[in-house]
Design brief:
Layout: H1 14-20, H2 28-41, H3 51-54, E1 56-57, E2 65-66, H4 71-76, E3 78-81, E4 87-92, H5 105-128
Amino acid sequence: MSSNFKTRVDIKPVAEILKKHGLQQGGAVTLFLRNEVDRYSDPYVPFKKGSLKNNKSYPNSYSIKYNVPYARYQYYGKVMVGKAPKKVSNKDLRYSGAPKRGLQWDKRMWNDRGKEICKNLEEFIRRYGK
């Protein structure tokens, strides 16, 4: 005896599914991740008087911009020498609060805390779409 079985599945448009779960470009999940990276990176950012750490902006939901003229040099950890415009030397910067605070703070933070951030992100995604 032969029987035929038919089924029909209606799938919502992908963009609608992504939006419902905050996964669209620039959506809630992206914003949450950026904020977690910012929060967890804070203790790793060089700090002498706080100018670098406290002068940042968020140009979009996935970026953090440090708004001081020397941010790039702090990030790459090289001493600047000479008169304006200064030149990069081969001499390494010495950081207050090292070894935690220092160059390439985002990468070092991710190495230390990335799994924790991923766990937080996973939990956020689980909760968001409900």
